[in-house]
């Protein structure tokens, strides 16, 4: 005789519970996306400020070093040549409101007698020539003049960005008190940040042949 087993309500309920639910991958909510974007925006702003600050600082350092070297080189060039000169062969033009001009001669180092002249761009000394330090188009230059007062060769650029007069002080200023000559140079430059930068130096020398 065949026996049929009837499942109880408990067994039917247990079988129903054995079915495992399907887990679905959940995406980011709108609030989470907004928070993430806000954090990224803050990071971008901070990083941008750091980059800008670093660039500005580097630009300032480059400008400062360049100006420092140009002014020192200019002062050394002028004074090393000027110290050999004499009151009798120095002409100082202070008529310009912003820049002075000094023209002078140096003695011949090899002659048996003292002859006055100047050295050209190659270093060759020429009798009756003169050397002039002046500002042209905002640049401090060394200019050589022949015996007819005509320029020989091109200007030698010593410094760029020579400033105009600031109050009573010129951008290139030369003063003389007997054998003592004082030279002042001030440059004014504008780095990438748009802020004007100024640097000024001055020094004095005593004429050896005063």
Order of helices and strands: HHEEEEEEEEEEE
Major pleated sheet: 5 strands, antiparallel
Portion in beta strands: 25-35%
| Radius of gyration from CA coordinates | 40 Å
Number of alpha- plus pi-helical segments: 2
Q: Write out the strand line-up for the largest beta sheet, numbering strands in chain order.
A: 1-2-6-7-8
Mean pLDDT: 81
Domain unit count = 1
Low-confidence stretches: none
* β-strand number: 11
Helix-residue proportion: 25-40%
Give the terminus-to-terminus CA distance. 147 Å
Structural class, by secondary structure, is alpha+beta
Choose one word for the global shape: elongated
Write the topology of this structure.
Blueprint: H1 9-17, H2 30-82, E1 90-93, E2 101-104, E3 106-107, E4 116-119, E5 125-127, E6 130-136, E7 139-145, E8 156-160, E9 172-177, E10 180-189, E11 197-206
